Amino acid sequence: MALGVTLALTPLLIGEPLAVLRGGGLGDTVRLIVSEILTGLLIGIIGRFFFLALQTILVVITQSIGLSPLPGSMFEDSEPLPPMASIFSLAAATMMFASDLHWELLRGLVGSYKALPVGLEFGARIGLNEIADHLSEAFVVALRIGSPFIIYAIVVNFGIGLTNKLVPTIPVFFIATPFITAGGLLLMFFTAREFLNIFVGAFAAWLQQG
């Protein structure tokens, strides 16, 4: 996919690198290649933060509703995730393509050559600032997505813990587990569409605004 995108965008962008390299030596070429690789890695890592934040909060959500002990397989990585987290990660990626955000990603790659012209040395300080800002933004979005489930888990577990203190002879946690899961699934039924829209909206805003 990377090779295909490179070949597709080369006719649009080849003029500026050639102009910068004209008359330069091998050292200039190597420095330019390293700088562009670092810039590309910065853009890719920032985009990846959004999906990592989503996967993290989905694990928290599945733990909150009692589904985390069931191991699942990632659709794009080797790290296991709970099945519910895998399903919604795949749904988020599918929505990205269904809403044509991959075209915005290509437009962003083309636009990055105007925002960061070829020949401009990679600024480590600016790159770290961008990483920190977008990392915090991605996890704020994740907290917005997971906040109903976190509140649900706090309230339910507080109530169950209080009940267990009042009647310690009854295995309250064992009895309440199916009801916790049922309530969590019901909450997910009513909020799944909204939290996927929040994620796709935040990712689209980053693609359009940088």
Automatic annotation (TrEMBL):
<feature type="transmembrane region" description="Helical">
    <location>
        <begin position="172"/>
        <end position="192"/>
    </location>
</feature>
<keyword id="KW-0472">Membrane</keyword>
<feature type="transmembrane region" description="Helical">
    <location>
        <begin position="38"/>
        <end position="61"/>
    </location>
</feature>
<keyword id="KW-0282">Flagellum</keyword>
<keyword id="KW-1133">Transmembrane helix</keyword>
<dbReference type="GO" id="GO:0006605">
    <property type="term" value="P:protein targeting"/>
</dbReference>
<keyword id="KW-1003">Cell membrane</keyword>
<comment type="similarity">
    <text>Belongs to the FliR/MopE/SpaR family.</text>
</comment>
<dbReference type="GO" id="GO:0005886">
    <property type="term" value="C:plasma membrane"/>
</dbReference>
<keyword id="KW-0812">Transmembrane</keyword>
<protein>
    <submittedName>
        <fullName>Flagellar biosynthetic protein FliR</fullName>
    </submittedName>
</protein>
<keyword id="KW-0969">Cilium</keyword>
<keyword id="KW-0966">Cell projection</keyword>
<dbReference type="InterPro" id="IPR002010">
    <property type="entry name" value="T3SS_IM_R"/>
</dbReference>
<feature type="transmembrane region" description="Helical">
    <location>
        <begin position="138"/>
        <end position="160"/>
    </location>
</feature>
<dbReference type="Pfam" id="PF01311">
    <property type="entry name" value="Bac_export_1"/>
</dbReference>
